[in-house]
Amino acid sequence: xxxxxxxxxxxxxxxxxxxxxxxxxxxxxxxxxxxxxxxxxxxxxxxxxxxxxxxxxxxxxxxxxxxxxxxxxxxxxxxxxxxxxxxxxxxxxxxxxxxxxxxxxxxxxxxxxxxxxxxxxxxxxxxxxxxxxxxxxxxxxxxxxxxxxxxxxxxxxxxxxxxxxxxxxxxxxxxxxxxxxxxxxxxxxxxxxxxxxxxxxxxxxxxxxxxxxxxxxxxxxxxxxxxxxxxxxxxxxxxxxxxxxxxxxxxxxxxxxxxxxxxxxxxxxxxxxxxxxxxxxxxxxxxxxxxxxxxxxxxxxxxxxxxxxxxxxxxxxxxxxxxxxxxxxxxxxxxxxxxxxxxxxxxxxxxxxxxxxxxxxxxxxxxxxxxxxxxxxxxxxxxxxxxxxxxxxxxxxxxxxxxxxxxxxxxxxxxxxxxxxxxxxxxxxxxxxxxxxxxxxxxxxxxxxxxxxxxxxxxxxxxxxxxxxxxxxxxxxxxxxxxxxxxxxxxxxxxxxxxxxxxxxxxxxxxxxxxxxxxxxxxxxxxxxxxxxxxxxxxxxxxxxxxxxxxxxxxxxxxxxxxxxxxxxxxxxxxxxxxxxxxxxxxxxxxxxxxxxxxxxxxxxxxxxxxxxx
Length: 614
Hints:
The chain is of the alpha+beta class. It is 12% helix and 30% strand. The longest helix has 14 residues, at 102-115. The radius of gyration is 31 Å and the shape is elongated.
């Protein structure tokens, strides 16, 4: 969202937009950018990487009198920190020079050649102080210095438009490949057609668009499309869902906004430009730290040149790092969901029951055609009495039962499933209270699992999903349990003799609670998780080695595992059930959410053997 109400100093007017003076002749020699040696590469895998941005440095490369060392130090810093911060790419946003002359381009050439060439993939683009007119302008000192020949040997470089002023690059980070469009400050219709062709050839790559002029901002930091930005938005960005982030410079103050594209998805648009600040911006560098695990980009802005000074003046100390709302902020992007329209996540094929029936499997239920003989279409009710076969062959079939005369839609088939679940199906429970309603799937009287005590150890696994939004008035909900009361098992040392002998529940705060009355003690060892998310599938595994119980959520051990020694489960010969909440031996509210594949194994499994892949 756009920032508002930000207190800031008076700011200068927007940068001039008159065309730069461009020299008409003379060659500028350059050294082509080289790929970094393999040993210097950051990791392309994992969940985190950094995208660095160097905005307008024109006041630092002015042949009339300037100091280009801050710009070079920013490039050197990015190279030096490449591995530490997993910096995958650096994008420059135009206005490399003040006048675009040959002399200034020679300085810019030296800055980039000695600062970054051959050591970190990067892109540049022309700003209005580097060139005049649109991208059909023909030859310029900028093109001879930073045109296609400079990047020809770079592994990241994908190609340039026929005029040479627009380019595209790809890099790897966070386990996927990303595309960068580096577009001229005035992209012609021909340039837009070229960029569209690039996107058409790379339809699954999330794309960062960089240009010089796209939005301007007011003093609060709220950004608005400029005339050229509107040209890009209407002609390219809004119709291409791949473009999720667009970065420009040119104007000050800095700002940001979020626009909605034709697919209904957000596009984050930012201005980065600090030439109005002390020392021409002091080579300010902005880093975009992508965290795909958290679904967030953390943005920071600072001057590596000033950071390196030991004795800073008060003005330098004030400028070294910027912490305003438009300089240091976070952007929430649920990457998988945001990119699903053009790059849906790979959905592993379903796995047959034979691959899940490990040694010691006591029961295995799934809700596709293999598990249900009469599985229905997505959203259709599950009939009362419908049977989910126990695919272990041990006779622990589950039977559908509606509670409290609940309506048909309290238990429905669903095609939704955890991406790694063996079966690509689930059942949707719409339980609730006031009044109580719901459904359960429970074993018949005499099923072997009803009396199994698992004193040598056990593993219980299931997949579940809480709806988003999580609506309604819900008590603690049972995911699974053995029916029967603790008192019936001769246990009175726990919270209540009316408790179920063993149950996995979701509390009103969405914590998981696993509570069991073991055969070995009179107490009820209880494990507690963190608050589980809504709108996302979760895998839970309860592992008992015949001595202690450990609960895993999505393959990770939780912290609040019971300290007491715990052997077996004090079953009392009553059914095992999915989807019901028990109190006093009776079902109250039914579960609210979806349940997928569920398995009970009569031994302790290690995480590598869980149904959860990886």
